[in-house]
Amino acid sequence: MSQPIRVAVTGAAGNIAYAALFRLASGEIFGPDQPVILSMLEIPPAMGALEGVMMELEDCAFPTLAGMAAYDDAEKAFDGVNWALLIGSRPRGPGMERSDLLLANGPIFVGQGKALNRAADDVRIEVVGNPCNTNCLIASSNSDVPAERFSAMMHLDQNRAQSMLAGKAGVPVADVSCVTIWGNHSANQAPDYGNAKIGGKPAPQVISDTAWFTDSFMPDIQKRGAKVIEARGASSAASAANACLDDVRAFSRPTPEGNWFSSAVVSHGAYGVDEGLIFGMPLRSTGNKDWSVVEGLSMEAPVKAQFDKVLEELRHERDVVKELLKK
Ligand code: NAD
Ligand code: LMR
């Protein structure tokens, strides 16, 4: 048996965590021979509920679960962890935009960014709590952990796009590859249909109804989170947990040849994005939690127009939280 992987999960008594913790503990994500230790963070009023979650984890008798602990102190929860999944924060309700949560949730990520200095040298951090790109910027800016080790989740949008393209083309989802979601996990994101592939061919060569991309595909992906809230009365949880775990796998394994995945990472200027913004990009992973941007893609005009808009939005969000960013 190898050394256990230590995984911190924040918001551990919440809905997304409830859909993620059991899969992390079961061996599904890191493999059947890889022990996992869960380090769960909550706020004091939720510690009772977290105790119940821990009872259930125990009752699963997962052979790969080598230990678990609950904390209401981020410094303790992040001590020595190899992964930190920052889920804990308030979700939006009907009629809200994710950016309405900026000032409610942003401060959480100041303290957690600092506390991440206690993590293991190889830590990788995935921010899920909304608005995740700017929360990720806040956490990273308050931490000594290299900025490249942080990402914000775009994989849910990628999965939504993949399913929608497969549905329209009448093919299995596995036939869809190279899906990029540029920018922000917000209603202004830029889902890139031009570079997506279906059965190895550019999507517009397979789906002849080109108006569909701009009239349905792009707006439906942008507004999917709100649609789920409207229908369920609560924000997506199982699909969000699934996307978070997809990202853990995407960064942990070499990206298959000819494909890429979408995640929001620190910009080093690729595609003209301001240095330091946390921007959704097409990435390839080496398999040891490092990544590189897939460069040289050209965008269809409607995608480029949306890319410019979402870049402006992220600049604006950065301005709104400037007091929370370390000078
Ligand atoms: P939830 O309300 O069910 O759970 C959130 C949990 O976080 C609660 O148990 C709460 O006590 C805890 N929490 C609050 N502040 C905390 C802190 N400082 N430290 C630790 N824990 C804290 O919400 P949820 O449905 O699990 O959603 C969590 C977040 O994820 C929301 O912000 C939601 O908008 C976001 N989300 C993001 C995506 C994405 O694609 N990036 C998708 C879905 C949801
Ligand atoms: C989603 O995309 O489903 C989540 O970000 C929840 C939300 O507020 O839309």
Automatic annotation (TrEMBL):
Its EC number is 1.1.1.37. Pfam families: Ldh_1_C, Ldh_1_N. It comes from the Bacteria. Residues 155-322 form the Lactate/malate dehydrogenase C-terminal domain. Keywords: NAD, Oxidoreductase, Tricarboxylic acid cycle. The active site is at residue 185. Catalyzes the reversible oxidation of malate to oxaloacetate. This is Malate dehydrogenase.
